[in-house]
Write a structure and sequence with these properties.
This protein has one helix and 26 strands. It is mainly β and 360 residues long. It has one domain: AttH-like domain (AttH-like fold), CATH 2.40.370.10. The strands form three sheets. Strands 2, 3, 4, 5, 6, 7, 8, 9, 10, 11, 12, 13 and 14 form a 13-stranded antiparallel beta sheet that branches. Strands 1, 15, 16, 17, 18, 19, 22, 23, 24, 25 and 26 form an eleven-stranded mixed beta sheet that branches. Strand 13 and strand 14 form a beta hairpin. 44% of the residues are buried.
């Protein structure tokens, strides 16, 4: 049976996940898979029943009672076309218990070769938004996202460009904290899994120019209650040359600070490990001219239990902020990393997501 190893304070996250998984497995908010559905992407386990299902949980969930309860799905891509490197991000999320800004999708493109960047955010009326329960079937003005855990099709239309891509997983699903449930901040549970390696191909059009793109994507599916006390978070997805998939969370709440990573190894085993708090190695802050928020653009990431030390930097252009309806924003930026993982030299590309203030 695939193993899970917990190291340092991260063991508490796994203990929490285990308790939540064992208590909620029989009545999980994850819908049961349709027996007629296509086979799921292989999902590894830790010996604790997984609370998430990479088939059924691509569908919308019945909302909890919390005002900040949300459903979210997005992918980030590193693709190439015409000798140029692009980063893509498509995200849709719903907050069904809110009256305003409840249904939204975003699309962003960065040309990492030239630094050109553009993003688009669409607010959608509930009557014009469809996300089916039990399956991936999302339709909204300007957005179509359909498929399953074997193949997906995504189409986006904006005033300045469009995207039409096919995504196909080439590896197993990844359950955060090994079971798919963990405390995001201050004891509030979240559910999350990823399809961390998806072959990606299709057409990108920006300002009238067509690009036939090919590359890879990382898809993340998350749902649950967003802690109101959460003041800042950083998320990164790191694909290592040896096949390790590393998903890093660094969160600051009113009562807790958590820096940890889930590592899915090619043999199906997991590590859930401590990460040194990112603020200790963050530098080169950039101030958004649109929102006035500050974000670091460099990090020194240390994961002692894995003999991992990485230098990470934003690529292309630091201005990759997506503005939100309340006048603030968050960063969805392409980054590149170099350093050492398990004692061996590594390099690669990934994304970073940051919200909140980085004044301290």
């Amino acid at each position: 049976m695939p193993a899970i190893r917990t190291k340092g304070r991260a063991a508490a996250l796994v203990t929490t996940a285990a308790a939540l998984a064992l208590c909620t497995f029989a009545s999980s908010s994850a819908q049961a898979a349709d027996p007629s559905a296509k086979p799921a992407a292989p999902s590894t386990t830790s010996g604790i029943p997984a609370v998430v299902d990479p088939v059924a949980d691509l569908g919308r969930h019945a909302p909890g009672p919390e005002l900040t309860w949300f459903d979210s799905i997005y992918f980030t891509s590193s693709v190439q076309a015409n000798g140029q490197d692009f980063g893509l991000q498509v995200h849709t999320r719903i907050l069904p218990n809110r009256d305003q800004a409840a249904y939204r999708w975003t699309f962003s493109v960065i040309n990492k070769t030239t630094g050109w960047y553009k993003d688009y955010a669409a607010m959608v009326e509930p009557k014009d938004y469809r996300w089916s329960q039990g399956k991936l079937d999302i339709k909204a003005p300007g957005l179509s996202w359909t498929g399953d855990s074997v193949r997906q099709s995504v189409q986006v239309e904006t005033p300045w460009g469009s995207l039409d891509v096919q995504l196909a997983p080439t590896g197993p699903a990844m359950n955060y904290a090994s079971t798919g449930v963990f405390h995001l901040a201050d004891g509030v549970p979240n559910y999350e899994f990823a399809l961390p390696e998806m072959r990606t191909s299709g057409t990108l059009v920006v300002e009238g120019k067509k690009h036939e793109v090919r590359g890879t994507s990382w898809l993340d599916r998350q749902w649950g209650e967003m802690p109101r006390s959460l003041t800042r978070w950083t998320w990164m997805n790191l694909s290592m040359p040896n096949g390790d998939k590393v998903a890093l969370w660094d969160t600051v709440g009113a009562k807790s600070k958590n820096s940890w990573a889930t590592v899915l190894h090619p043999d199906g085993s997991y590590d859930v490990v401590d990460v040194e708090p990112l603020a200790q190695g963050a530098s080169r802050q950039w101030t958004s001219p649109a929102t006035g928020q500050r974000y670091p653009t460099r990090w020194r990431i240390r994961i002692p239990a894995l003999r991992t030390e990485l230098d990470v930097r934003v690529t292309g252009n630091p201005d990759q902020e997506i503005e939100t309806p309340d006048g603030s924003g968050y960063l969805e930026a392409t980054v590149a990393f170099t350093g050492v993982h398990n004692g061996k030299k590594v390099r690669g590309e990934n994304y970073v997501e940051m919200t909140g203030e980085w004044n301290s």
